[in-house]
Amino acid sequence: MNGRTAGLSADAVRDAAGLTRLLGRLGGAGDCGDLIVVSNRAPWIHSHTSTGPVARRPAGGLVTALETVLAAQGGCWIAHGSGEADRITSDSQGHVLARHLPSPYRLRRLWLSDEEVDGHYHGMANEGLWPLCHDAGVAPVLRGADWRRYREVNRRFADAVADEARSERPVVLVQDYHLALVPRMIRERLPQAIVIAFWHIPFPPPQAWLGFPWREELMAGLLSSDLVGVQTAADLAHLGALRAMSASSGRAAAGAYPISIAWPEAAERTAPPAASRDAARRLVEGRFGVPPRVRLLLGVDRLDYTKGIAERLQAFECLLERRPDLHGRVSLLQVTAPGRAGPAYRWLEHTVRTVAMRINARFGDAAWRPVLLHLDGADAATVADCYRACDVCLVTSLHDGMNLVAKEFVAARADLRGALVLGRRAGAAAELRQALAVDPRDIGALAATIAAALAMPRHEQALRMAAMRAVLRRRTVFGWAGRLLEDGMRAAAACGTAAPAPRAVPLLEAAA
Ligand code: G6P
């Protein structure tokens, strides 16, 4: 194995090697040319510092997963260049200069105007599609002008794919709801391309789409792929149901491919887990002001209304009301990375701060703060310490495509300790069946589940954790990528080399 697989467990190395072999075989056989990943968010964003531009990776599982695929093979990643120092670290074509790119592939940045970002990203993606796809009580805002920008920006991404392709038959991995029209637009330029689209967030049932005026155009775009991947069987059923109602059934095969994590070598460590837990605990106590000997509940999320953070806090408050014996003996550490812009996010931050302050004022004292609210995010190493140090990890999303926090927590617990409380409507719940499943909207039931997690005997913690770890060990992100690529190639082969021209579909213009 090479340096890129250092730090991975044997299972992850096996899957990564399989993926590399798959890509090599396909490239060598001339079945396909190059590999291109397309996503809105870039894997590396540069900012200015006093010592010059510095690259950082945005939070989130999408980047971790896909960079793994490209690192195995090389190729090109096309994404929006949104960082303040992105232009000075790129050449005139938007390619990031090698000395500024910490990863072994071409990164092509696309420059979008403020108007394009407003309409495509803030408007259609964040205010329209995100709430439409997540059943989290926020109504989508659907503006015709945003859809037109969405279409234009999708076209710019497809043009960039045509520019970057080194052959007539590149394999193109199109990511997520920001780029649903791109597969069809690629097909118009590169009819032989193998296009695989992956929808990372929940795919809602047809009734959720009924109020979306451009659903026919969106489906025609997506279904021009060779393969559309979604996270779960439920998402797949919803996609099938909407497809059955659509004018264009498209050429795409479809399947469920639950995304995962790399399964690091550290996850296999059996030797000093207690020592590593104690060390992590001391670090977390120092960093976040957790008093010694207090039991620790942990939440790790981006600040988003889909994550159920306010519900989690209310359930903790309910628990403290019901259980005075827990006063002074348990704290909730909420580590939250900053969220997106917009009224729904401002309101959420206000609510979370207010509830946390209320709980601390009602129950806390000089020696004990029940809620430790940290809203500035934390680096991956600190988050890993939090996973190892806590007693219970609370992943109480109201609705979530997958949720990799749940999987990362399980990977971090080589000591087989700790309990996971997991919202039933997070995609991860379909795989992590030994978690304590909850409906996070039922505050009383969530409080009772947190109490049960705190009281879980060690042997039960170990049994549940070992079972969940066995599932994740077998299903790494490399396996995810390998299955997606292999099935995508198979689907493309079944379609024949000459791809049919996309069928004309009625395009509904927005009334707005
Ligand atoms: C979450 C979702 C991804 C999505 C991303 C966009 O991480 O799981 O599917 O692509 O959000 O986040 P952004 O910060 O780019 O809006």
How many angstroms does the end-to-end distance come to?
55 Å
Shape: globular
Bound molecules: 6-O-phosphono-alpha-D-glucopyranose
Question: What is the assembly state of the chains in this entry?
Answer: single chain
* Biggest sheet: strand arrangement: 5-4-1-6-7-8-9
Describe the structure.
With 512 residues, the chain is of the alpha/beta class. The chain has two domains: 10-261 and 476-494, Glycogen Phosphorylase B (Rossmann fold), CATH 3.40.50.2000; 269-474, Glycogen Phosphorylase B (Rossmann fold), CATH 3.40.50. It is 44% helix and 14% strand. The chain has helices at residues 10-28, 61-73, 114-133, 144-164, 182-189, 206-209, 215-222, 233-245, 273-288, 309-322, 343-363, 380-389, 404-412, 443-455, 458-474, 477-495, and strands spanning 35-38, 45-47, 54-56, 76-80, 106-110, 171-175, 194-198, 227-230, 253-256, 295-302, 330-337, 371-374, 392-395, 419-423, 436-438. A hairpin with a 6-residue loop joins strand 2 and strand 3. Helix 3 (114-133) packs across helix 4, helix 9 packs across helix 12 (380-389) and helix 10 (309-322) packs across helix 14 (443-455). The radius of gyration is 23 Å and the shape is globular. The model is unreliable at 497-512 (pLDDT under 50). The site of 6-O-phosphono-alpha-D-glucopyranose (G6P) has 8 residues, from loops. 6-O-phosphono-alpha-D-glucopyranose binds at residues 41, 60, 62, 176, 200-201, 340, 401.
